[in-house]
What we know:
A four-stranded mixed β-sheet has the order 1-3-7-11, with no helix packed on it. By secondary structure, the protein is of the alpha/beta class. It starts with a strand and ends in a 7-residue tail after the last strand. It has two domains: 2-119, Immunoglobulins (Immunoglobulin-like, Sandwich); 122-250, no CATH class. α2 (146-155) runs antiparallel to α3, α2 runs parallel beside α4 and α4 (172-184) packs antiparallel against α5. Helices cover 27% and strands 23% of the residues. The model is unreliable at 60-65 and 241-279 (pLDDT under 50). The longest helix has 15 residues, at 188-202. It contains eight helices and eleven strands.
Amino acid sequence: MDLAAVVTEAEPYAFGAAIRVELVLRAGDAPGERTLRLDDLPVTVLDAAGRPAPAQRRRGGGWGCDGVSVALAPGDEARVTFDAARYAWLEHPGRYTVRVAWPPEDPERFVSAAFALSPTDPGDLEAVLVTHTESPFHALGHARFVPLLEQEAVAGVAVERALGGLGACPCAEASDALLRWFDRTDDPDLRARVAEELLSRAFPTRVDDVWFASRAWAPRFDAELLARARAPSWPMRGTIGCCASRPASSASAAPPRTCRSSRARTTGSRARAVSPRAS
């Protein structure tokens, strides 16, 4: 099975919009089947100067621990869609190149496509926000979207979008919003998810997440998090002590999670793989 092309949709994209990228897979003369786990897809995003954009942290569950299974007969083609912001934190408008290594075990071979991000006027932020109707929400991970995401969180509207956008933002503004959200919600399940996000910022469990935490967390948050962890409403007993005893710089990657897959069906000479939705 070969990766024939990487295709982006019409550009330029508004800053904060999902950057839709399609992988075009072809079977060639022999049938093939492969499961692509999106969290492990070897994607790099380069800026106009050829510098890699900071890698966006990726976790299981709501962050997209999923895969797509592609089965092709000879001559068939399938397309798998993903959001480039899932793999890179794009801080500034400008021109970028998304590059996918293929086969994944050979980083020296790749296909690529270019796209552009245009500035978004403050008055247009809400219009960009509401275009994100399903996960992932990584493209919203910027300080300028935090006030809108917090409004949704407090109102109980588009909670998954609020949690995904705030969780993808490597900024202190998002950590402040998450602390306030923890205090305001009466939903024990939601409080546990917000607490998990706060802990991941304070104590990153993967080496690749240290960069994210260094921007998202500040020493002033430590006392605030500890005060909440000592309160009866804290949903994860014992977690502060466990995480504090393991330095982030020496943390190893978390154990693999069991991930669900969706299957691409082929009809005729072309098939489109339905983009899997994060849990």
